Amino acid sequence: MAADVHIAYDNEVLDEKDEVLDDDSKSKSPDELYEILVKNIKRYHPSTDLSLVEKAYKVAFKAHDGQLRKSGEPYIIHPLCVAIILAKLELDKETIIGGILHDVVEDTAMTSKEVEEMFGPEVALLVDGVTKLTQLNYSADKVELQAENLRKMFLAMANDIRVILIKLADRLHNMRTMQYQRPEKQREKSRETMDIYAPLASRLGISKIKIELDDLSLMYLEPEKYKELSREVEERIGERREFIADIVGEVKEQIANVGIEGEVYGRVKHLFSIYKKMVNQNKTFDQIYDLFAVRIVVEDVKDCYAALGVIHEMYKPIPGRFKDYIAMPKPNGYQSLHTTLIAHNGQPFEMQIRTKEMHRIAEYGIAAHWKYKENKFGKKTSDDEEAKLSWLRRILEWQKEMPDNKEFLNNIKSDFDLFSENVYCFTPTGDVKNLPNGSTPIDFAYSIHSAVGNRMVGARVNGKLVNIDYKIQNGDRIEIITSNNSKGPSRDWLNIVKSTQARNKINQWFKAELKEDNIVKGRELLLNYCKAKGIKASDISKPEYLEKVISKYGLKDWNSVLAAIGHGGLKEGQVVNRLLDEYEKERKKNLTDGQILDELKDQESRSNRKRNKGGIIVKGIYDMAARCSKCCSPVPGDEIIGFVTRGRGVSIHRTDCVNIMSLSESDRARLIEAEWAVSDIKDEDRMYTAEIKIFVNNRVGVLLDITKILTENKVDVTSVNVRTAKSGVATISMAFDIKSKDQLVSLVGKIRNVESVIDIERTTG
Fold first, then answer.
1. Do 41 and 109 sit in the same domain of this protein?
2. What is the pLDDT of residues 94-112, one digit of tens each?
3. Which are the catalytic amino acids?
4. Which of 57, 140, 153, 263 has its CA 20 to 30 A from that of 230?
């Protein structure tokens, strides 16, 4: 019987093939990868005309010609690998073509119009959607940047879910090749992947992508723990090979005896899942009993429950460890029966039972059953599939309700919480409600309707009165007691509720009820802020400026902006700065070259024509000295350039400064040539501030060894900041005074020789 069992791990012991998309792209030429792509497409679309796919390959090959990835491979390798991942998800031809072309508009001379002319409007929209997700505002701080990226992603999903499927495939291949990035970038991208992309793949039900993203992120965020877990799993596989084979053989024989046709095999839990359980439940590796599981895949639902009966007769089930996700599916559509059992030798193991269709959806998620219907606007999702994405509609509502990016991001992360479980409870009529773990009757009330939550005065659970902070348990039957005389929710409820939905609806009630008060308060906060900063409120209050801000935050009118400031949804400084941006844009348009020159002269006069510490000459403006920018801290010997500011003269940057490299086309017109003053370069007494980041494997004494070099070279350190990640890699941000770039290069060379130093970067903005 064991001969019929397929158990393999890394093609040897336990099989994860049904969950992980194999990476078969290593050491392959572009033509070899294209053949792999065609083979995968023909596997599920044997009669498909692939002429457009071939054309897309040739167009992308030519467009990316001469471009290399950090690995040194031709750039075309990346889009081909993205397309292979999409083909393994069995997606339609347009999506695969979009995957091949997803970088051509952003990284080559090719335009969206050319893509549309060659491949049609549908492919062009997919490519454009992915391109827009990549074109971010790098002047924002990281939290704002991440939130703005998320907003774009969800809007793209609302237009066509396939845009996000391409983006997920793109991120998966980038994570597979992350070893070529510097350590700081590896950690940054891995954290973003674990916070956003893996939960998003989970929400869409695509375990094939979600599992690999989790494990790859863990490998870079917790490298030592990852290696330790990998080693322990490998060792345990050797010990448990015969045990799992015996279980599979017994189960296969018993279900066949009762006439159930099905496939039985073993599988190993993926590393991040093990790590998560160890962290959340404070367990050691030896206490993880469901490291291996046996899975039964049958034809229909009745066979699932019949097989469950057989299994519970064969092995003793552990009480409280049975979950019926068939009757009550997870939010992403996942369905299966889970039960933990005790084998005859006393060893616990997990059993999963599902149908073939459930298994396919568990692997591919929304990609497994995404249907399209034709209409004059092109391909849109069917009503049935839209119902599966109710969470997406909820998020799109949040977009309108939350103008503040940081609030939006917090709500998204809360909704996507990787470590949360759901509880399933019932309405008095028997309908199932799915709520976050820890939810209360208040959460339940708002999940039914805002009016029910706003009029709630009490609740019964299973026929008994409970407190409003009662934690709902699986299977509870909840009845909400309402009253027309209710004065509405209490602010204390915000500290009780668990779900983002309930919190938002409570906040909405207070915003609506107290809108007039909030408008008055918001106006006062705005005027006080302007007064404190010396800003003339009338200058920035033109209707056209206000309209821009209203539009930016997606609000109805200016009173709504003031109300948002009043209740704390927007910061007054945030709004004033937006208005100032609009004021400066218009003022810049109206200034003549002569006026700009006058401004610079006034600036020079105010400083009594004194040369600043930087010792820099701006060409063409009366040899006027300028100030060094703190964002990149240029020192003599650096290539520099000037940027004409408003009211602050010319700021000097290194030519490799991020802020200079990311300037818009219109702002680049304000760049001006600059050079170091010869007298200042020769001045031995003049000092300049340099800033560097040092990445080290943390150890006792490493900071002392670095500062010792600076002390021996008589360098004055002005600031030091150290951050240590869980991975054990520390980032030392250091500023010190030097005389020239030559001295800086010499110091960096000496610091690189310190034991445990991984890399050194100079601050570039």
1. yes
2. 889 999 999 998 888 888 8
3. 106-107
4. 263
